[in-house]
Every structure is written in C-alpha cells, then in structure tokens.
C-alpha cells in the first residue's frame, strides 16, 4: 500500500489512545481523543497502522483497525491505481478470512464487512463477483496467505460453499447483508454507479447459491438466523432498483424456505417481518404455489398461535395480528370471493373479528384492534369496487350475502370498541393514549363510511338500535358511540332520502329530553356528541320541524354548561341556518335567550359569535323586509354596547380588554352579515323578479332602512381603538364583503363609499392591508355583476389609494402580497373604469408593474402579467377613443420595456413553474401589437439578455417559431419552455 514504516512505539501510542477512548467513565477528553484518532486514521501510514493493529489482543483496538480501513477507503479509494487497489483488496480479504476462521467477534467482523463493501463502492477498480471470491477465499486460506502452491487449483464456487463451516458461512452472510444495504443507497439512474448495480445483478446468482446452503433443510437454526436478514436485504435491494419479474426469480425461489421458518418460534419473528413487508408492498413477489404454501402455514401454525396468544394475552400477538392482516390484504380477492376456501379464508376473517372482541380500550389496554382496520378497509374496498362495477341488470355475486353478514357483525364489534373509557380510566391517560384512542375512532368511522356504501339503511337501523337499547338501560357510553358513528355518516345519509327514515326512531325517542336533564349523571362527552348530532342532522330536522322544540331547548340549556357551551353554540348556528324558515316565530324567544346568555359565565367571543350569527340567519327568513328591522336592531344594540366598552377600556389604557372586546364586536358584526345573506338554495321567481325588487328592496331605501345601515356603519368606529390589530382589520373586511354577494338591497349592502373611505383611511403600515385591497377589488367586481357602476369619484379614489401604496412600497419585492393586490385592483378597473385608470396612470406605476414581472415572487408576477395582458388586448366598444389613444401611447412607450422584461424571464431568469403565466402577455403581444417583432429582436440581441448560453442563431430560430405560431397558444407555450431550457443549458439548443 504505502511505503512508510510503522514503529512499535507508534502502535503502542495508538493502542493507548484507543484504550483511553473506549474505557468506561470520562476517559479523558473524548473529543480531543477522537480528533487525534481521526488524524491518525487519515495519515499516510494509516493503512499500515491498521494492518498492524489487526493483530492486537484488544477487541477495541481490532475494531478501530477495521474502522480505519473504512475511513481510508472513503478518503483514498477513488484515487487508487490498479496496483494499490489490488494490494488493499488482498489485505482486506485476508483479514476477513482470517477473522472468520479464527472466530473473530461479530463487532469486528461486521466492521470488516463494511470495509469490504466500502472498497466495492469507492474503488475505481471494479470488484465483479465479491460473494464468490470471499467464499473461495474462506475455503482456501493457505492461498490467500501466500504459503500455498502457486499452481494449486482454485476450488470452484459450489465446492467452496459446501466446504464452509457455519462460522465462516455466517461471516459471508454478514458481508452479503451489508453489501445489499449499502449499494441500495446508490442512485440507480446515475451513470457513476451503473457498474456497481451491474456487479450486484451478476452477484445475485452467487447470493442465491449461498442461500441454498444457509436456508436449506440441513442448515442449523443459528445459520438460518443470519441468513434471513441477508435475504431480506437482497429482496429490499431488488425492490429498490425495481428489478423485473424475471430478475427476481432467484429471490422468489426462497419464499417457501422463509415461510417454513414461521414454524420455528426462534426464526418466526424475522421470517414474519420479511414476508409481511413483501405482502404489504409487493404481493406479486409470491409465486402462486409459494402463496398457497404460505397460506397452509398461516392456517396450520400462525392462526392457532394467534388464538392462543389472544387467549393468554401474550406479547407476540401484536406481530401475529400484523402478519395475518398483511396476509389477508394480499389475498383479499380469494378471501372475499371464496370464503370457504380449504386453506382458511373464512378462518382469516373469523380470527380478525376475534381480535375486535378482546377486552380493552384501543390505545390503552388494547393495541391490536387498530391494526385490523387496515384489513377491513381492504375488504370493503374490494367489495364496493366489485359491486358498483356491475351492470344494473347483472346478478350480484353469490358471496354478497355472506359479506353482508360479516360486515354487519364487524359494525357491531367496532361500535363496542368506540365506547369512550370510564372517567376512572381516562383521567390517568397521557397524550399518547388520548391520541391513540382518537385515531382509532376516526379510522373506525372512516371505515364505517365505506361499509355504509354497501350496507345502506340496514347499517343505520343497526346503529340506531344500539343507541336506543343503550338509552333504555342508560348506558350512556353506548349511546355516545352510536351517535358518534351516526354523525360521521350524516352527509351520506342526508344525500340519500331512502335511508333517512332509518334515523326517525332516534329523533322520536326521548333522547334529547333526557340529555337535556342536567340532573342526570351523563358524561359531558355524551352530551357534546348529542349536540353535534343536531348540527349534523339539521337538514333532517328542517324537514321534520316537530323535532325542533326538544332540540332547541336542549341546545340553549347546554349553553350554560362550561364544557358544552362551544359545541352547543356551533350546533345552534348550524341548526338556525338550516331550519331558519321553521324558526321565524321563535325570534323573540331567541333574542331573550341571547340576552340571558350574555350575562352567563360561558359567554365568550366564540359562543357569542355563533349564536348571534344563528339568530341573524332566522331574521333573514322573516318577511316582509320591514319585519327584520326590530330584531336586527336588537342584535346591533348588543354589538354597539361592545363597541362602547372597547372605547372605554382604551380610554383608561386597558389594551388587552380593548383588543378582546373590540375585535369580538367586529367579528359578531361579521357573523350577523353572513347570517343575513340569502342562502344559495333559495328559489327565485323569474316572472316576479322586477316586482319583487321593488317591493322587497324598497325598505332598505327608506329612511328607516338607511338608519339601520348607519348603525352598522357606526360600528366601524371601534377601529379607532383596535385598528392596529390584524384580526380587527380582517373582521372589518369580512363585514364589507358580506354585502357584496347579495343581488338584492339589504342591510349589509352598504354604499360603495363606505368601502372606499375604509381604503382611504389605510396606510402601508395597516395590518392585513392585502385583505383591504382584496375587499376593494371585490367591490369593483361585485358592482359589475350587480349591474351598476361605481361613481367616477369613488373609482378615482380607489385608483389614487393604490397609486399611493405602490409609490410608498417602491418595489414589489418589499411586500409581494400587497404588491400583488395593488396590481390586481388596477386590473379590475378595466374595462369599466379604463378612462379613469389611463387618464391618471403614471410612468412610476407602470414601472412598478414591470418590476413585479421581473421579481421572483409568483403572486405579483401573476398579477402583473394579467394586468398587461388586459392592457394589450383590444378594448371593448364602450371604451372611449381618448382612452384607446392613451393606451396606444402607453404601449408605444412601454412596449419595448415590457418585451425586454418578458424575454429576460423566459430566457432563463424565471422559474419553470412561472412560464405559463408569462406566456399570456407574450401571446397577446404577438396577436395584437404590430411592433412586437422589432421589440423582441432588440431584446434578444441586447447585451443584458439573461440567456447568454443560447447563441444568436438559436434566438433567431425561437423568434421565427413564435411569429409563425402566434395564433396557436399551445405551440407558443411549448416553444417558450424549450427556449427557457436552452437558455438554462438543460438542452443543447433551441429546436
């Protein structure tokens, strides 16, 4: 290797350092020792020193020597010449064979294996058949030592394997295992590692020969223990490189031997892990005959073991359940379609159902139930795929009746597992147990959704029956489990009217009367789930208003209970919104209840907002419009009280209470605005539309209607004390937006000047300024949709505000989100307000939009591209001649700048994901601007052009391609992407 001499003193010093490093306790400064040892490892005589240290009697010293080989190979290996590589190769094999034959321990031997694998990877001289060479070396140590006859025949590989004792075969298996693990980390598609993978594939046959001995019927158990992980490593490697079916043949041939290991309790865990991985991710790895053999072992050995383990609560039941689940999922077609199969399809289903019957709570004393969910998901998925792919007149398969029976039983077993734990149990739980139980419930109900698609109303009847039976004997945890499952199914139930009648018995029972009786000892979780049921089935209650009284009384009673208030408020909001037309006569009572609630300790911002929003939903359903005035004023009075309170707290410097109450007031106002919106599903009488507009909308144009709107606008005065808080600005924007969606006059359809004034009062330091600008853009858009225009005064004010924000911002990169919204509003001003935009537009503002295209952030780039596309395209007939002339002047002045900016971007400066955005103004230019060709020629030949890797010929070819395809947007996009790649150097040239 190298020619330096290692003295005895050097060896002694290194041995002393190693002993200090590995000795128990402080052992000196470990970091300093490690640094010294690392310097020695990387030194020129590190090779020879490691060679000498391998003869030490100290285990730690020999381990360090083996480690040094690996370090030196990683550092020096790529620079080996052929002679050095051969010398290193020979010495490594010598120490490996010597260690294997002289009984070296596993720690040193595995580190020597790592060194050999590092040589395989790092040496520039290929090592073609490493497993074969090591096997031959193990059987002919004299030749490796150089003491044998040079003419002595080298034993053939098969003969070498036959001659190896278990100790040496074990070392060979260690090497093979580490070889597959390490090479699997090398990228398959990189040319630098192609030869390594080629050598591995050539060695697959050698590995197969080793496994024939190590997993053969004559092999000892201890040898099989080492063979199984080696086999697993090679199978994983083969999968990582996506070896084809034929290439996998040598490895697939050993499935039967690995399966046989399942009958040996010492070998079973490792064999089970190997087979489970294949069953989980690549069941086609198993040949049909191998799967049948595995099925017989599962039926004859694994299933009985699991039954015993479940009965005795053995620890290995966990692995057994996971294995049977994997086996069941891999063979799901047979299990579903042939439940009476001789190898136990019915038995697999039965044992996995038995797992769900064991005592214990999932996530706590039962860790098994959650693992069965995967199987049942696969089971029902196969059934649904099969059943729903049948033609309407096609007969159902014969196994359907049995599958329904199994799934009905499974629903019952899952329901039993959904029961919340007793308080005495859950109070001792930590986060892990709570999260695990919650995960099981969610997974179980997701599974029930899939089962419901197959069983339909039979499953509903079953769950309702469980609830009513539990209610009758006051098993409240059973009631809660039923309601929890029914809540998950609500959307599907309500979509299918045929199944809806199944839940009638639940609502006709005295369930909600009993849970509303707070003198009964019922857990808060049960009441919360019952509250959620009312929110989930609001549409059903809407169609059956006879159930409303009991449900409403229960919800308002629950508001007074601390642990139920939030859930109750949420369901009140949902129920009021859904059943608004059936509750209009209850408005006075609701307002009274709300006033009472405001005095209760459970009054907090969330509950208050939900309830006031729910009441507003009912007010919306009142007719005529004048009937809404009195109850709406009552709600506004409560909000005004909060506004006044916030100002009072601000006056005495109580900032925390100012923010809490002030923001809550605006958020309550938002909820009222949303509640008063006309629902999307309200029918419109197209014949009476004009008459309705006059009669219904006229109230909000009266003095009384205007007075209510002024009260709403007056609530914005709270921004004087909370206008520096993001939540307040966002809530104010939501209030304004709540009127934009309306097509008829209403209390929150405020004059445009309100929004305009709001924008004018903002500065660049206003929090959530992007939300403010977005709201102004929505005003412009909604005005056009509702068929009226903003006044020139309002439109000019919005433009002036945007221009001021952009001027203060300077560059779009200083705040990309605000910049994007500024440019977006300019775009919205076209075409209706083009005359205002281009009468006042400045060069600085146009430069601002160009800088946004040139920036790296996507949102301002997208907005600016949209703006210029709209400018370039022909204007509408409504656009005045003066405006058209002004736009032409802008294009004549800014066209070259725009084209240069776009060319810079598509010339490699932009991200690839932005190319589609940039193509839009480019396509508009090609179609509608006659000067585009000249501008592009100038941009492509400019010395500042970003894509200098592309020569002038390629640029000219690109321009010709664009000009010939200007009317074909798809061709333009493809050309731009190729041009971008050529400028980036990822393709040779533009073609």
Number of alpha- plus pi-helical segments: 52
Low-confidence parts: 146-154, 684-696
Q: What fraction of residues sit in β-strands?
A: under 5%
The secondary-structure class comes to: mainly alpha
Distance between the termini: 53 Å
Find the count of extended strands (DSSP E, 2+ residues).
0
Helix content: over 70%
Envelope shape? globular
Rg, Å, rounded = 39 Å
User: What is the oligomeric state here?
Assistant: single chain
Kindly state the mean pLDDT as a whole number?
Answer: 89
Largest sheet: none
What are the defining features of this structure?
about 1000 residues, mainly alpha, globular
Structure, described:
- The chain is an all-alpha fold and 991 residues long.
- The chain has a domain at 260-421 and 432-452.
- It contains 52 helices and no strands.
- The longest helix has 29 residues, at 881-909.
- It is globular, with a radius of gyration of 39 Å.
Architecture blueprint of SSEs:
Blueprint: H1 8-22, H2 30-42, H3 46-53, H4 59-76, H5 82-101, H6 106-122, H7 130-139, H8 141-145, H9 157-163, H10 166-183, H11 194-214, H12 221-240, H13 249-252, H14 255-260, H15 268-281, H16 288-312, H17 317-330, H18 332-337, H19 345-355, H20 369-387, H21 400-417, H22 423-426, H23 431-455, H24 457-472, H25 476-495, H26 497-500, H27 504-508, H28 511-515, H29 524-536, H30 538-543, H31 548-558, H32 565-578, H33 587-598, H34 605-620, H35 629-651, H36 655-675, H37 689-697, H38 703-714, H39 719-722, H40 726-740, H41 752-760, H42 769-785, H43 792-809, H44 816-828, H45 834-840, H46 843-854, H47 858-872, H48 881-909, H49 915-928, H50 932-941, H51 952-964, H52 969-984
Family: Belongs to the importin beta family.
Subcellular location: Nucleus
Pfam family, one: TPR_TNPO3_IPO13_3rd
